[in-house]
Every structure is written in structure tokens, then in C-alpha cells.
Amino acid sequence: MPTKVSKKVAGMIIRSRKTILKDGVMTTSGIGEPSVYHALVVIFLEFFAWGLLTMPVISVLKETFPEHTFLMNGLIMGIKGILSFLSAPLIGALSDVWGRKFFLLVTVFFTCAPIPLMSINHWWFFAMISISGVFAVTFSVVFAYVADVTEENERSLAYGLVSATFAASLVISPALGAYMMNAYSENLVVAVATAIALLDVFIILVAVPESLPEKVRPSSWGAPISWEQADPFAALRKVGKDHTILMLCTTVFLSYLPEAGQYSCIFVYLKLVMDFNEVMVAVFIATIGLLSVGAQMILGILMKQFGSKHTIMVGLLFEMLQLMWFGFGSQMWMMWAAGVLASVSSITYPAISAFVSMHSDADNQGLAQGMVTGMRGLCNGLGPAMFGVIFYLFHVDLNDDGKARDDSRSTHIIDNATTGHADSFPQEPVWAIISQLIPGPPFVFGALLVICALLVAAFIPEGAGVTNNFRSGSRRQSGLSMEVHYEVERSKKHDGLSPLSPLVDDSAIL
């Protein structure tokens, strides 16, 4: 029996992908064969469209929520992040059944759907941004698309290209959007962003081919569909089963929670509190983006010199420092210094992913990475909400001039001083002092969380295997194409060997 299967496997390896496509395994519309470049175009256009709106969104946010700008920004982005965390596994599972192209179309369309509402109704615009979180998982589908069209030894480079394309889309788009808004009008920026989003949808419809052939979808094997994979908490429940994974996930949670919160509000903070104008914010984004790309390029050198564990700790150290600078800084040059530190700290998550990859067995990669990704997805929802609430609790808000203020505390101090009410007067200056010493309280709180992450990371056993307790027998072998894997599993089924696993195994969480 095994001999028979081995012969069939050998036959599948000899046959090329083009021959299999010619046999009709993949029936799809599009230009050429599916490749990484199709995914890169989709990612670039989607985030270029949103990058154009960086400055207009800040202005509209201040205009719509003048009293609680930072709180509402945090709640809007927090709801979007939570919905994305809940829906990502389900959309990933459905894309394994119905194909990637359809869900690329759905996620891009609904993620960009709020854009034209910005010129129609601001309240509906922000409401739709929150609701669009259900479909704001383009990255998950794109990574699945890339996995379909690359071998495992090529995947790290391909994922790096996707991340670099995302960064490139934000290098010039905010500056271009700011220029058009100042030179012409906000409505023109919205119109151009809408046109680019529609172009992205059109390209997916016409030019992007399906990457998941019909015959390699689990439903075609006769396998039962398991919706356990669609459970967003499935990966998190497995965290405690392995000591090293538990420590890694704790490190990710403590470090990415403030990072997600920072990304949700930093550009609003720079413009409305630190008096950055539109051009300065755009240049800030471009500079930090370029420096981050440079930091990613030296990541491999750092890991060779210091090891993956110590590279993680270096990234965490820079993250803690940049959060402190953002929290205590009150001058523009301090914000620029913090931004440079932030670009270096961008190596933290890739270093964690590399650590997991190097210390996991080949058949455990998806499971371990899924746990870490699930923790990061949870932070995408909790981080922005946490920052918004802390801004609100410390009364960091805006007055009509756009300056940061301590809400009603300052006027209350004056009233107490003039009327002679001294009962609460001694307590009031404390808030004023805190506001002067710590312009950005959430950043300081985030720095404290990163210090805790550093302490946890220091005890991670660098030489230990990460996922020894998690074995997955249904993952396809390294170097085999999806079609070969399909034929192997079908051969096992027809030859009376072990039955197929449902849908995809628990290792493919996101």
C-alpha cells in the first residue's frame, strides 16, 4: 500500500504545474497564472487609496468629534479591530472552500466602501469604518493567496514583498493627499481615493486569477467541513499548552497592545496636539516608512549576530524608548527622535515570527504562527480602544483652537480660586501638572507594558522547541505543490489509508 502511494507521489512531482493546469484543475478568469505580483497590486492600491485620506480623515475626525476626539478615534478603530479579529478565521476558512479571488474582491470592496461617504455624511463615514472591520482582513486573504502560489522555501521572501509593498503605498500617498487637499479641496482627494479603490476592484475582477484550484479544495476531497477553524479563539485556547509559546504570546500581547494603539492615533496626536501641519505629518510618515524598510533589511544581520531572542529584546527596548519619547516629549524634535526609534522597533514582530519559525517543527509552523497572529489580531482591537480611553481619563482633549487641554479642570481651578472653595482645590493642580509633564499618558502606559514584555522575553528558552505538544499530520510536505498534495491525499483515501482531516487542520488559524 505505501509503495503504491509513493509511486503516485513520484508521478505527481514529475508532472509540472502547467500540465496540471492544462488538464483543467484550475478554471478561473484572470491575466496569466496566479503569482505574488497579483497580490502586490491588490495590496498597494487598497492602502494607497486609504493613504490619500490620512490628512482629510484627521480634519474630519476633529470636526465631527470636537469634544472627545481621541476617545472616539480609539473606539472607532477598536471596534474595527475587534470585528476583524472575530471575522478573519471565518473568512480564511471560507476562502479555503470558495477560493481566494472572491474574498479578495469582497474584502477590498467593503474595506474601501466607506471612502465615498466622507464627502456625503461624516457620521455615516465613521460608522461604516467600524462596521467594515468585518471585512477588513485583506492581508489574511493575500497571505493565503501568496501561500498558494509559492513553495515553502520562497514564502518568507514573498511575505516580505507584501509587507514592503504595504509600506511603499504609504510613503507618498499621505503627502499627495495633503497637497491635493490644500491646493484644491477635500472632495477631490475623496474622489481620487474612490477611483483608485474602484480600480483595485476592477483589477481583481478582470486581471487577478484564482490561486486555489477547484480540485485541491478540501470539499473536493470528500472531506467534512469543520468550522472549528472559524473560531477566532481557537488558537488562543491552545496557548497555555506549551510553555515557550505561552511566553511568546505574552510578549506579543504586552508589546503589540500599545503598538496597535499608537498606530491608531499617532498621526492625529501629532497634528492636533503637537502642532504638526499636514506636510510635516506626511513627511513624518514617509520618513518612518523608509527607515522601517531599512531596519527590516538589517534584521537578518542582527539575528545572525545576536540570535533571535536577543533581537526580539533589542526591538522591545527601542519600542519602550520611543513610547517614552512620545509620552513625555513636548517638542517637535522629540517627536522626530521618537519616530526614528519607532522605525527600529519595527523589527520586533518579524523577529518573533522568525523565532517561532526556527524553533518549530515543519508540521507545526501554521499552528504556532496562528497562535501568535491570533494574539496580535486581538491587540488590533483592544489597543486603539485602550489609548482612546486613557486619553479620555486623563482629560487630554481639544478646544476650539485645536490645542490640547485638560478638559474642564483648568476652569474649575480658577472657579475654586476666585470663589474661595478650597475643599477640592488642592487636588486640582495635580491634573494640570500631569498634563504638563506627560502630554501623552497612553504612550507612557504602553512603555510600562513593553517593560513587562522585556522581562517576559528575557526568560524565553532560546534553544527549546516551541510546539512539541502540537502535532499535525495533514500539513502538506515542504516543496510539494498544492496539486501534488491533493493527489497524495486522494490516493490515501482511495487506497484505504487514514481518512482526510476536516477542511484544513487546526494549524491554519488565520
From TrEMBL:
Where this protein primarily resides, as one coarse class?
A: membrane
Transport in keyword set: yes
Q: Which UniProt keywords apply?
A: Membrane, Transmembrane, Transmembrane helix, Transport
Q: Which Pfam families match?
A: MFS_1
What is the topology of this protein in the membrane according to its UniProt annotation? Answer: Multi-pass membrane protein
Can you quote a single GO CC term?
A: membrane
Annotated compartments: Membrane
TM spans, by residue?
Answer: 36-58, 70-90, 102-118, 124-146, 158-181, 187-208, 245-269, 281-303, 310-328, 334-356, 377-395, 443-466
PROSITE patterns the UniProt entry points to: MFS (PS50850), SUGAR_TRANSPORT_1 (PS00216)
Every Major facilitator superfamily (MFS) profile domain range: 35-464
| CDD domains listed in its UniProt record | MFS_MFSD14
Q: Name one GO molecular function term.
A: transmembrane transporter activity
Its recorded name reads Hippocampus abundant transcript 1 protein isoform X3
State the organism named in the record.
Frankliniella occidentalis
